[in-house]
Amino acid sequence: MIVRARSCRAGASGPRGAVPTLNMVPRRRPTPLLAAGATMLLLGCLVLPSHADSLPSFIKSPDDQTGISGGVASFVCQAVGEPKPRITWMKKGKKVSSQRFEVIEFDDGSGSVLRIQPLRTHRDEAIYECTATNSVGEINTSAKLTVLEENQIPHGFPTIDMGPQLKVVERTRTATMLCAASGNPDPEISWLKDFLPVDISSSNGRIKQLRSGALQIENSEESDQGKYECVAINSAGTRYSAPANLYVRVRRVPPRFSIPPTNHEVMPGGSINLTCVAVGAPMPYVKWMAGVLELTKEDEMPVGRNVLELTNIRESANYTCVAMSSLGMIEATAQISVKALPKPPTSLIVTETTATSVTLTWDSGNSEPVSYYVIQYKAKVSDNGFQEVDGVATTRYSIGGLSPYSEYEFRVMAVNNIGRGPPSDTVDARTGEQAPSSPPLHVQARMLSASTMLVQWEPPEEPNGQIRGYRIYYTNHLLSPLSTWQKHNTDDSRLTTISSLITDITYSICVLGFTSVGDGPPSDVLQVKTQQGVPAQPSSFKAEAELDTRIMLMWLWPVQEPITKYELMYWEADSGNKLHVTFSPAGSYAVEGLKPDTLYMFSLAARSEMGLGVYTQPIEARTAQSTPSAPPQEVHLVSLSSTSIKVSWVAPPAASRHGAIAQYTVAYQAASGEDTERHEVTGIGADASSHVLEGLEKWTEYRVWVRAHTDVGPGPESLASLIRTNEDVPGAPPRKVEAESVNSTALRVTWKAPLSVKQHGQIRGYQVIYSQLENGEPRGQPNILDVALPEAQWKVEESTDYEAIITGLLSETTYSVTVAAYTTKGDGARSKAKVVTTTGAVPGKPTMMISTTIGNTALIQWQPPKEMVGELIGYQLQYKRSEEEAYTVKDFRKTDGHFTATGLHKGATYVFKLCAKNRAGNGEQYVKEITTVDDSPSGYPQNLRVVGLTTSTTKLAWEPPLLSERNGRILQYVVVYRDINSQQNSTNSTADTQITIQGLQPDTTYDIRVRAFTAKGGGPISPSIQSRTMSTDMPEFTKNFGVKAVMKTSVLLTWEVPEAYKSEVPFKILYNQQSVEVQGKMKRKLITKLQPDTDYSFVLMSRGNSAGGLQQQVSIRTAPDVLKTKPVLYSQGPEEGGRLTINLPTVQTKAAVRWYYIVVVPVTQATAQRWENPDEMELDDLLEASENPSFRRRRRRRQAESLKPYIAAKLESLPTTFTLGDEKKYNGFYNRPLPGQQQYLCFVLAALTGQDSKTFAASPYSDPITVEMHSGMSKHTEDPEMLWVMGPVLAVVLIIIIVIAILLF
């Protein structure tokens, strides 16, 4: 056993009073050489003065003090030097000596306190000297003491307001000695302990003086005990508090166990930790002992807690925990008991047997009590393990349920609380006999002659003893009791003959076996015609359902009968319509084409050339269940509340159930809202006809489906039923509520509707609730303004703004405003309150007149308002050109009456607004518009540029002249252009800011300018630009720029490049402020990362010719996102090799879809890198395959060589599920089997109608799926490829053989 002591120490060292540890150092005698050296060193020290000797110096000097008669004075003096100096006190040249004078030394006499108490007014007033002396010399310092009478105490002299009090504290606790003093200036407080200054700095923070003056001692020690005084000092004098004692009490508690060791039982070789914890004051040391052997080393003895680790325990033992301190020693013992497994029971014997039971008795074999016994037994001929009887409490037990006449072996084990012991020796026993419990097997008969029959059989499966013989019963009256039948006995043989039978009739035969105990049951009746050559009735006729539409029939071949064929009759159990089938001789027959879960009856007869034998008695069998072929009927939905819907249905028609309905599934999906995922409720009981869907979103339209399940699987879903949950009050307040003051009596409130997912019903209107506030609190009842929405506004966008004007308010008054929406169910939550204050009463409109002048100025004159409220303090004028956004604002004094606006533009309309102001704010505005006089433009059009070129045209664009230079409305532009080699100008005019000049010469440079005109004439002409038309010799760089296919986030653009075009300069495609470059010889480009259902315009440009501009353009609209969910694997169960069934996504669009394509993408490293989603795939190969069957065949051969995406099916409508690899054709596309050990992705491609180009919407990729299949399937897929390789190789080999044969012969 391994013993290890592990300590958990309470601190770094033992507490006071703990058992001491003695460290003994052996004393060694020095060698003579060392002794001589030491002597010489000592003599050197005596002869030579030390270089470290120094004159004393003061580190603390006494200070002058002013005390009070009857009080205390204390002077502190301390010096350092080498050797240490001693301190003496002198008064008037004499050493101090008096009963009232006390000298207290510290630091070995190098420090000293002179304390005088009580003070006397005239006797103690003096200068006191402190002298520090050592062997090197002495130094002096002095301090003056002044003693005042009580009536001489000056103003501001320190006063002790609260002094320290007697205090008792336990050691290690915190003690606080209080002190508070006052004076002018505020006195400083210091502390004395036993008349010596308290050195706070050397306490390592344990002793500190608080701001209040109090002295705080943490983790108090016995050395802190003493008499404490606080001293208050300021410039007026010094005052001492009355002393107070601090007592530090040390607790002394003998040791005791807080966690004593406990007894344990362990298994042999087990491990355990023994914990022992002791407490006391001082804390005790803890050790472990085993008898007299100490397990804890003396120098490793922990304090308080000790854990003993015991491992690999093999025998029981006692362990003692000892706790000791200076106050005593205690101990506690733990017993460790090693438990053993019980011994095997003895004397196991069999005391009694019957045909089905054996009684056993045994002895315990254990001196210790056992918990119970376990009996194990098995049949000796069985390969199975022992069976067990557990929890046997006695030593006698009968085991029942055994097979008759069978040999068994038995053994017993004892069990205690440790476990099972070894088994006892085994005993064997054979059960008694019983009559057979099963009939003879495979009974057959045939006619040896017209009156003699041969009957044969096999022994029973359960003879239950020694078969003594067989009885054969036969009769020509099948319905008579068995006791009336004729009987033929035989010994233990397996065949017999029965003679003297009546010819040409049908006999019924059965056989039973018997033991010494009795007869067993008879076999099934076998019928035979007493006609030689006619087959007997087929025996052991059985039926077994294999599939939901197939039942397998089996029987025994008749003995040596020349059967030519079999005739079978079968019919549904509840129908009289019998069907006849004839087939060649066999021992089994499969009846196909049956109805699932239907009970059928079968009767079989054998035919020979001599005639038809007897039909068997009808046997029955039921076909296996299948999935329902029809959905539940009469699905009805009722909205119970705003969050629940009741779904009711009727079971599928009985003829379509194909089995017992095991459960129903209800699926539902919100058409809109926060959660549009499809959800399913499974496990609805087979007897249920309704289910309540709860926790739904309020006022939301749901689609609901119901399907029935048998034990085989689910049937089809019902058609989707639509219903909307009931209305509720809105679940959120209106958004973006704002309130502003309109004037002194009105507020404007604006808001937006709650989010549609939070409206929970049809918003019928809004309530604007407003209250007057006084000091931030509402005054009186709130007022409600109802804003009912007309029916035309019920269906509005979330961005619609609503507005209400609250009138009839008080001026300069604060109001709180909230808004709530309501449905027919009531009001929803109110918005957060907006606090707004109405303005004071403001002035009315002033009178304004405006006169324009020729010099681009306007004179504005005004008169005060006729309706003036309050004191007029000024005016405010705002004006701007009508095309501009911001107003120019001018403020005027109340005495001003006119203003001249300068810098106005010609031919422009200006808006002027003037209002009067009082202290409440701006009044009502007077608004007036004026138009200045037109003139011809004073500036030319801006940014003239070429935006397109051909060999005979140039397209130009420009911007109007600057706003300040237009001088009126621009009516037209005139473009002036000429060949630079000619002086003849040509002109074209337009009202637009662009024009295409026609009829130009190829490869010619033109000088172009433009001029703007108003009604008053033309302005200056712009600077010229030059442009060169394209050359007729320059080949056209592209043609037929168009769209091949449009997806929801991509578009495939194509064009043709003439053979004569040799440019290596890339093309550029511009679209929606983005551009991409394409190599000069490429003829297509897939543009990706577009937005669904969005308009785009694409421009193809060539950077390599002199045109340098716009060449060709196409516009498209990307496809809507109609397939938002991905196909998922339909996990109904394993399928045949090469097939996978998937659930297809739901189409979420009202747009017409022309075709649906099921696309399969084999996963390779290339596909993973090229196509992150289906929209990044160039679909033209797939699309051409849909139009060109021969291309499709060629493509299929290429795909056999390399894994490429392909279309598995083309469908007019999208089913719920689809099976990939079913080897069928769908509108010309072959759904080929999927090779195994290969991952696939699939997606659905919808071809939309009503588009100019080919527009497609793709679903997301499915998750990767893999086909599991047998090895043969994989080989089958590869065989065609191997033929292409092996065929030519074999041909070459054959030719070589022929050539060699010709050469040899």
Automatic annotation (TrEMBL):
Main subcellular location: membrane
Gene3D superfamilies xref list: Immunoglobulins (2.60.40.10)
Record's keyword terms, sorted: Cell adhesion, Disulfide bond, Glycoprotein, Heparin-binding, Hydrolase, Immunoglobulin domain, Membrane, Protein phosphatase, Receptor, Repeat, Signal, Transmembrane, Transmembrane helix
Origin: domain of life: Eukaryota
One Gene Ontology cellular component: membrane
Biological-process GO terms, alphabetical: cell adhesion
Entry coiled-coil feature ranges: none
Recorded catalytic activity of this chain's protein: O-phospho-L-tyrosyl-[protein] + H2O = L-tyrosyl-[protein] + phosphate
EC number: 3.1.3.48
Its membrane topology: Single-pass membrane protein
Fibronectin type-III domain residues: 344-434, 439-533, 537-626, 631-728, 733-841, 842-936, 940-1032, 1037-1121
Membrane-spanning ranges: 1282-1304
Pfam (any one): I-set
GO molecular function terms attached to this record: heparin binding; protein tyrosine phosphatase activity
Region (Disordered), start-end ranges: 1-23, 421-440
UniProt domain Ig-like: residue ranges: 56-146, 158-247, 255-337
Location in or out of the cell: Membrane
Keyword check for Glycoprotein: yes
Record family assignment: Belongs to the protein-tyrosine phosphatase family. Receptor class 2A subfamily.
PANTHER family, A to Z: CYTOKINE RECEPTOR, PROTEIN-TYROSINE-PHOSPHATASE
Protein name: Receptor-type tyrosine-protein phosphatase F
Lineage of producing organism: Eukaryota, Metazoa, Chordata, Craniata, Vertebrata
